[in-house]
Design a protein that fits this description.
The complex is a heterodimer of chains A (335) and B (296). Chain A is of the alpha/beta class and 335 residues long. Chain A is built from ten helices and 14 strands. Chain A folds into two domains: 62 residues, Phospho-2-dehydro-3-deoxyheptonate aldolase, domain 1 (Alpha-Beta Plaits); 252 residues, Aldolase class I (TIM Barrel, Alpha-Beta Barrel). In chain A, the strands form three sheets. An eight-stranded parallel beta barrel of chain A has the order 7-8-9-10-11-12-13-14, surrounded by five helices. Chain A has a four-stranded antiparallel β-sheet with strand order 2-3-1-4. The radius of gyration of chain A is 21 Å and the shape is elongated. Chain B has two domains: 201 residues, D-Maltodextrin-Binding Protein, domain 2 (3-Layer(aba) Sandwich); 78 residues, 3-Layer(aba) Sandwich (D-Maltodextrin-Binding Protein, domain 2), CATH 3.40.190. In chain B, strands 3, 4, 5, 6, 7, 13, 15, 16, 17 and 18 form a ten-stranded mixed β-sheet that branches. Chain B has a five-stranded mixed β-sheet with strand order 10-9-11-8-12. Classes of the chains: A alpha/beta (335), B alpha/beta (296).
Chain lengths: 335, 296
Amino acid sequence: MIVILKDRPDEEQLAGLVSWLKDQGISVHPTVGSSQTILGLVGDTSRIDMDLISALDIVSSVKRVQEPYKNANRKFHPDDTVIRVGSARFGGGAFALIAGPSVVESEEQILSVAEAVKEAGADLLKGLAFKPRSSPYAFQGLGIEGIRLLLLAREKTGLPLVSEIHDASQLPLFEEIDVLMVGARNMQNYALLRALGKTDKPVILKRGFSNTYEEWLMSAEYIMAGGNGKVILCERGIRTFEPSAAGTLDVACVPVLKELTHLPVIIDPSSAAGSYTFVGSLARAGAAAGADGAMLGVHNDPMRALCDGPVSLTPERFRKTVKSLRDIHKLIMEE
Amino acid sequence: MEEKKMVSIGGREMCLLPADVTFPTKARIGCQGVRGAYSEQAAKRMFPLAGRMFFKTFGGVIEAVKSGLCDYGILPIENNSFGSVRAVYQLLKSAGVYIIRSERILIRHQLLVKPGTSFEEVTSIRSHEQAIGQCSRFLKTVEGKIPVIPVLNTAMAARYAAETDEKGAAAIASPEAAEAYGLVTLANRVSDSDNNYTRFVCISREPLIYAGANRISMILTVSHTPGSLYRLLGEFAGCEVNVLKLESSPLVGRDFEFCFYIDAEASCADPEIRKMLERIKASCPDFIFLGNYSEV
């Protein structure tokens, strides 16, 4: 339920209303927007008499929110959420670029990629230390050593770090990582989401292979309900009947989600591209649809990459893609 | 020390409070209107220290009290020239709240303007329709020269006068409204009568009767037989109870059938009075006990 208040509501009366709502077991989330103040009510609102609240002089109107997600809902929070990481910004009209190898393989690899992507204009460096593979025999990542190498790369380049976390028990290892990523397979790992809800770090929430927008937003809701509002949604392709790539990029989710939610939406086109030759086009499609950023796989030597080589861009191809993405984003913003 | 006592009155379980339980001073009070309204004045006088919440409608005030959003509500019940506020009686009939106190507020209408505006510069006067009626003699002196515009209530008229760009916009409202909106009084006492009072009641969801209560309010219907009203009034006379108010009101949706709003001077602490009320209830097709309270 949302309560839209009249301009400059009387403090004392507002406090009276909020305290009564809390006594009823409803948590109240005020949002002071540019044109109005909204109270988002979360809890069992079926017992609340909407007419009673509407009768209050400080209240302009009361509406029920049909969707099961509240905190993530744009009705609760009409303005875009802007998440700042270092000098990078997700949301509010910016375009954030995350780049890096699929997995951290060695000091030489991560440092050379980090320097290259920084030079080409990336805002954040990504690299996985713990890599979930479909096969138990495939390279699973360097683990703690991978984290250490990422920290070294940040020291040398100043780029904030993005890395994937799989379990709440790993949180101490990720102390120094700037942005935590939840992989597609963990989108409904509610124990992990709840634990991330208690942290203060931005979380990139990848969409599950076969999950609906509502399920995706409810996963975001899990994190936000824990108190962490810094959620970035990342579309990486969904499972359809087409087997030629590891997913079909659902570009439509960008404009649709930006209407349903106030959270930033970014694209990771690698898996859906299937080949590095298509990564640029898909990234541009995302930018053209209004995405708040992109995450691109970059490797200094894709032929010898331990993971996702075929879809990785070389630093040079990355540089060209960055330019086209920034140009398109600028065009979109002008509209 | 006396104990509080539960008694049954007119079908309602009421709690007679001992003399040492005083009327509360701190609470959340609901009233209708906006800052500067006469209801706010009534609320301030009865509860000087309490927080106030404003509602757009009388129904909102009652719902707020029933739900606990407010501890008490202040509602206007009658005016000595205009009569009963029927809308409030209608709501009280089925509300399930109790009158625990009432008070009389002297309505002092004043002509309010923005600071620095003279009488010659007044270009319009706004007020509530009732207030306009109560200032008819004064307004006749400006008839044809200054338009008089009715609005929802006097406080809103004051708010408009304060916030509009129209320099000469004036309002007929209370001195409290002047203070709330930063207006000055151009003309004091523009009412026809100096004796303009409105009674306000304080409602609660708790069935309480404070010590010293001397006024009983009820709403009832009498049976459609000759002498039924005579016999009803005979009950009051028989117990030597002074009837303070007896007003008939048409029943909505029925063909010229009426209910009565009755106020009587009596205390429910007296068992004879309680027996009288039981007899009255038994003889009336509908009987609603609104409360036993004192008036300040």
